[in-house]
Amino acid sequence: MTKPFIGGCACGAIRFETSSAPLVESHCQCRDCQKRSGTGHGSYLVFPRRADVTITGEAKEWRVADDNGNEKVHAFCPTCGTPVYLTFVAKPEPIAVHATSLDDPSQFNPQLITYGIRGHAWDIMDSSLQKFERMPPG
């Protein structure tokens, strides 16, 4: 059994929990993740089914299209502004939570890097991770 993944925003108004295993754990260096995080990348755990993640509290959402025109729906706390999770309009089942929103961020075990083409020399990533120029297929 997987240790539950539990977390939430900085002020505690939004909380989430799941016992599902992540499909993938990754760093993303796309410009949207850079702007949203205020640094060189975002880090995520992607779970297979939104329905298997219990979320309490009311998030605000905003949408942005990726390079392929697919809409991503970003959810954040309206009180403290912490980004908590995102979903994908074209693929409504998966949900990605921000690694740093975990109560125990040591549970995050990155496997790969997406949008490496947009990475910055000052944002040093683990060179042993598989790196994709953009989003990998699938």
TrEMBL record:
Q: Does the keyword Transmembrane helix apply?
A: no
What the record says about family reads: Belongs to the Gfa family.
Q: Which UniProt keywords apply?
A: Lyase, Metal-binding, Zinc
Q: Does the keyword ATP-binding apply?
A: no
Q: Kindly list the organism's lineage.
A: Bacteria, Pseudomonadati, Pseudomonadota, Alphaproteobacteria, Hyphomicrobiales
GO molecular function ontology, one term from the record:
carbon-sulfur lyase activity
Q: From which organism does this entry originate?
A: Bradyrhizobium retamae
Instruction: Give me the segments passing through the membrane.
Output: none
Name used for this protein in its record: Aldehyde-activating protein
Q: Which residues form the CENP-V/GFA domain?
A: 5-123
